Task: inverse folding
């Protein structure tokens, strides 16, 4: 099953690259002109979100480098340890919604130190894969269309992250420990 | 909201670094480096956006988008009850979710941003997120996927004997995250205006 999905996910894009221009050409459309037209719009959107990407990375980078994150980990560790969450994965849980590269860097470090097939290695892998970089996505998506009031989306996004973490930790404890 | 979070990260960060005796220079360098990282991400995104929006425009002109919209109507209607029938946001939303499911993060972003553009056109308050936007964002931030491509690659690069053994758990975890996120979205949307 996993093999089929992974094969499909490797070939779906090349297939789309072939079939869409081909169908367009068969329908008598100036496919090249249409592509350029769309590409121009794509470039504009990407450039428009640059300030939003930079502003978020800037604030999060200061927050991470300052040691505020370490402090947060220290404060919450006793409670989270009590619930059976290993200390090594606590920084990852705070990092995951904030910084994609930061979380990936931390996961790499754990995989290198403890080995990817150790319990801890599997656990951080599952936590890393259990959700996405909430703050980054919110800033970029909303920024791209000029939305300033995010309403409940931050809370819903964080609730999803926490639910993903809890499920990942529980399942790892059941299947890998 | 963001006004507060943004200022909070910076002020708390700098106060913390003073208390914990960190070097101010390191902090400055990290902040400047963030600007460079932003440019790098943006440069990659320009290329990816250009390609995908080009392909999508061909699909639009060929009428493929319209026929697809008819087909996926029930699914989108269920997730986004406020969207008008056959709205132009249908296709980018479908492609965005599909790309995420297949672990194609690079392709998911352009379609997500395109969907946001279409949703903004029917948004009554231009500076405030609409319900449909929040739903789309929750689906994206919860990372719903069948193929956690990055983590599998990382596990295999660090010498795992079975890099894909975590796939079952990540599918269940992201699915849980998405369901909880969507429930929170439905429950909270009337409490925030």
Result:
């Amino acid at each position: 099953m996993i093999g089929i999905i992974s094969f499909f996910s490797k070939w779906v894009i090349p297939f789309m690259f072939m079939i869409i221009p081909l169908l367009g050409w068969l329908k008598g459309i100036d496919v090249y002109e249409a592509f350029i037209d769309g590409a121009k719009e794509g470039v504009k959107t990407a450039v428009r979100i640059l300030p939003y990407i930079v502003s978020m990375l800037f604030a999060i980078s200061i927050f991470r480098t300052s040691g505020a994150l370490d402090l947060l980990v220290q404060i919450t560790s006793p409670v989270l340890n009590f619930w059976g969450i290993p200390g090594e994965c606590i920084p990852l849980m705070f990092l995951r919604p904030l910084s994609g590269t930061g979380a990936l860097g931390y996961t790499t470090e754990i995989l290198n130190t403890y080995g990817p097939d150790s319990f801890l290695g599997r656990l951080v892998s599952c936590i890393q894969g259990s959700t996405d970089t909430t703050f980054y996505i919110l800033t970029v998506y909303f920024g791209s269309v000029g939305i300033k009031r995010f309403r409940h989306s931050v809370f819903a996004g964080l609730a999803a992250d926490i639910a993903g973490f809890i499920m990942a930790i529980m399942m790892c404890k059941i299947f890998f420990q | 909201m963001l006004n507060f979070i943004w200022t909070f990260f910076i002020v708390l960060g700098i106060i913390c670094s003073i208390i914990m005796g960190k070097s101010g220079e390191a902090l400055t360098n990290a902040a400047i480096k963030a600007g460079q990282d932003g440019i790098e991400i943006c440069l990659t995104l320009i290329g990816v956006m250009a390609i995908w929006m080009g392909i999508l425009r061909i699909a639009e002109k060929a009428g493929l988008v319209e026929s697809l919209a008819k087909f996926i109507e029930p699914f989108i209607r269920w997730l986004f009850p406020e969207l008008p029938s056959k709205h132009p946001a249908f296709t980018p939303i479908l492609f965005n979710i599909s790309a995420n499911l297949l672990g194609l993060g690079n392709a998911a972003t352009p379609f997500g941003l395109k969907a946001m553009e279409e949703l903004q056109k029917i948004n009554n308050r231009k500076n405030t997120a609409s319900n449909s936007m929040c739903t789309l964002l929750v689906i994206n931030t919860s990372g719903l996927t069948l193929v956690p491509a990055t983590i599998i690659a990382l596990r295999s690069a660090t010498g795992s004997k079975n890099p894909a053994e975590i796939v079952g758990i990540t599918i269940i975890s992201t699915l849980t995250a998405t369901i909880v996120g969507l429930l929170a979205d439905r429950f909270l949307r009337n409490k925030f205006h």
Chain A is about 80% helix and 0% strand. Chain A has a mean pLDDT of 91. The CA atoms of residues 62 and 68 of chain A lie 9 Å apart. Chain A touches chain B through 104 residues (CB under 8 Å).
